[in-house]
Amino acid sequence: MKADIDATVTYPHPVQRVWAALTSREALAAWLMPNDFELVVGHAFTLRTRPVPGFDGIVPCEVLELDPPTHMVWSWRGGNIDTTVTFTLEATGPASTRLRMHQAGFHRLGAQLTRRILAGGFPRLLGRRLPASLDRVAGTTEATGATAAVHCAEGRRAYRGVFGRWRQSPTR
């Protein structure tokens, strides 16, 4: 079984500015997590966050693909997941960019629970923290109000299906 996280956001910023926010170690730390990222295919890096029970707070990643300034793929492992994250940028105007963030590879029940937790956090990251970071770089003092739409409908059905099968299992 597989379910994905698929978030799409349009920012009132040019592609190059949004790309820089996704590919600079300092910018990533400002809106996502502290890291040792480098924009090089094959570079292994870690994202670090506060540990919680069952998760040490360390997310091992690797840059798998790059096509600047419109496409980047990372591996994203940690806890009970081993996924890929694809960032795709599309200019929607001279100073407007659509970002699609697609995280795929959530297999098994434990990974589905992690997917639900991550999917709950991406609207805040992509809809508030990243736009605020972009606004600071642009020198604007007021937030632009970008919002994220996270679409996980198929994932919820897949999650319910696994949970339902687990509840009906005679060995439970």
Structure description:
The chain is an alpha+beta fold and 172 residues long. It has a single domain, classed as 2-Layer Sandwich (Alpha-D-Glucose-1,6-Bisphosphate, Chain A, domain 4). Helix content is 37%, strand content 34%. The protein has helices at 15-23, 25-31, 108-138, 153-168; strands spanning 3-11, 44-48, 58-67, 71-78, 81-93, 96-106, 149-151. A hairpin with a 2-residue loop joins strand 5 (81-93) and strand 6. It starts with a strand and ends with a helix.
Ends distance: 19 Å
Query: How many DSSP-defined strands?
Result: 7
Q: Specify the number of helices.
A: 4
| pLDDT averaged residue by residue | 84
CATH architecture: 2-Layer Sandwich
Number of domains: 1
**Which radius of gyration do the C-alpha atoms yield?**
17 Å
Query: Within the CATH hierarchy, at the fold level, what is the topology?
Result: Alpha-D-Glucose-1,6-Bisphosphate, Chain A, domain 4
Low-pLDDT regions: 147-169
Strand-residue proportion: 25-35%
CATH class bucket: Alpha Beta
CATH superfamily membership: START domain
Helix/sheet category:
alpha+beta
Shape: globular
- Name the helix and strand elements from N-terminus to C-terminus, one letter apiece: EHHEEEEEHEH
Q: State the strand order across the main sheet.
A: 2-3-4-5-6-1-7
What can be said about the biggest beta sheet? 7 strands, antiparallel
Q: What percent of the residues sit in helical stretches (DSSP H or I)? A: 25-40%
